[in-house]
Each structure stands twice: as C-alpha cells, then as structure tokens.
Design a protein that fits this description.
about 325 residues; alpha/beta; 6-stranded parallel beta sheet; 12 strands; about 45% helix; binds beta-D-fucofuranose; TAT_signal
Amino acid sequence: MLKTRRHLLGATALALTLGPVLSVHAADAPLVLGFSQVGAESEWRTANTASIKDAAKQAGITLKFADAQQKQENQVKAIRSFIAQKVDVIAFSPVVESGWDTVLREAKNAKIPVILTDRAVNVTDPSLYVTFIGSDFVEEGRKAGRWVLDWAKKTVPQGEVNIVELQGTVGSAPAIDRKKGFEEIIKADPRIKIVRSQSGDFTRAKGKEVMEAFLKAKDKKIHLLYAHNDDMAIGAIQAIEEAGLKPVKDIAIVSIDGVRGAFEAMVAGKLNVTIECNPLLGPQLMQLAKDVKAGKTLPKRITTEEGVFTADVAAQELPKRKY
Ligand code: GYE
C-alpha cells in the first residue's frame, strides 16, 4: 500500500514537473511550412528558391520543399502530401493560374492555411487562400511597353515596327499578365505590331529554339524582341548571333526579371533593357507564415516594389545586384 502510494506520489510529482515543460515545448515547436516550387526553369527561380530556403533557416521554420518541375500535377501531389503530413502552413507558386479549386478546398477542409507566392491563381472562391505575395506582372508588361513606345519613336521614326514575342509558360500568371500589360501600352502607336508570338516556357533552351524559328521565317523584318523573362532573351541572343545578326543593333531586346545574366548581357551590349521582378520573397513569406499561424489578419494582396534598368546604367548597377 505504502509502496503504491509512493508510486502515485512519484507519478504526480513527475507529471507536475513535466507538465509545464511539455506545454512550453509544444508552443515553441518550430512552425512547419510546406512549399511547392514551380521548378528550376530560370535564374529568377534559382534565386527565389535560395531566398526561401535561407529565410526559413533564419526564421527557425521547418521547410518541406518540393520541386514540381514545371508540372501542375506534381504541385497537386505535393500539396496533398503536405495536407497528409499536417503541416502548419502551405505556400506555393502555382505554375499555371487555373485548376486549383479541388486541392485548395482539401487544404481548407483540413484547416491548413495557404499562402500564394509569386504567381496568382484563378479560383471562384477567394477564401481558398489567405494571401498572395508577388509582383504586379501587368505593370511589368506596361513598363516594357512604355520603353518600347519611346524607343520606337526615337529609333524607327517611320513605317512599321515589327515585334516578336517570347511568352512565358502557357497559362501562367506572368505570361498572361505581361502580355496584357504590354499590349495595352503599345496599341497607342498603330505602327507597332506583334508579328509573331510563341511560348519559350521561361527557359533559355526554348527561348533559343523559338527565336531560331522566328528568324528562319524571314517574311518580315524583326525590329524588336520582347521576352517575358531574361533567360529566354539570353537564349534568343544566341540564336540571333548564330544567324549572323547583332543583338541590340539589328534587333532590339527587352526582357523582364533583372537577373545578373541580364545585367551582364547589357554590359556586353547585347540587351537593351530589363524590367525588374524581385525573386527575394523568402523573408516576407516566413513572416507571413508566422503571422497566419498566430491568427493575424493579413491583406489579401501584397505587391513587391520594382524598377526598370537600361543598358547605360548596367555596369554601375551590376555589382549591387543580389540575384
Ligand atoms: O519571371 C521567370 C520565372 O513567376 C515571376 O517565373 C516568375 C517568373 C519569372 O520562370 O523567370
């Protein structure tokens, strides 16, 4: 009897000491964030991935990272696996805009908040995600368009101005919006026409391949190339040079992102201008994940601030670039 009592007392004492320890531990347990990345298609994406991984480490967040290799089905699988693992927060950069309703509803039913990073989705029910952090891609397209309007006025004072366009991934928010913003601005000058437009899937290899096809057609003079990202422009520069033409001199080139490779191309005189799109979203994303977990109300849309860099400032800007 005495023995049993001592045992009971011992157990109570143990529970008393461990109780607070255990609950403190639970509150301090690192937040688990499941992140589904688009892929590794561009310099921009590489910088974005590095930013997210570094920021998670800095913030003491346990990151479960999945690379979807530019395939929506892989992203859906990754999100389902995050739900099964009961992560605290899910974040993802959706490769395309549509087709997310079902899986996001599953996350909502499991009470796991979702943060969109970089690219937007097209869903009927906006409550399927908490917030979206990323660039204003329509505005980036407009910035490119404004530069082209001005350039056309100065450089091609008369006659038609023929543009070829390398679009990003078909159905992706940046491809849709960068086209839209650009067209909205260039229509102010009826001489300017997009004579060819095709997707180069945001990669150098495809950018080069599609530009080769554009150049082979030879039915219309090409005055300018508008590429939805720097990597496709860099691929296209190779195609232009291999065709015996001079980038910038024979064909002006405008692209988007502002990655190091674009600054190097500008310094080498092979690219006219890049419109900045900031990939360093990691630190803000980690803060948002913590805020959402803490139950704070967040704005539905958080837009990053960006600039425009022309070749004449490239050499001076290059050492300051962080990606
Ligand atoms: O511009 C491109 C990348 O979604 C903003 O994706 C991003 C785009 C970026 O592949 O280089």
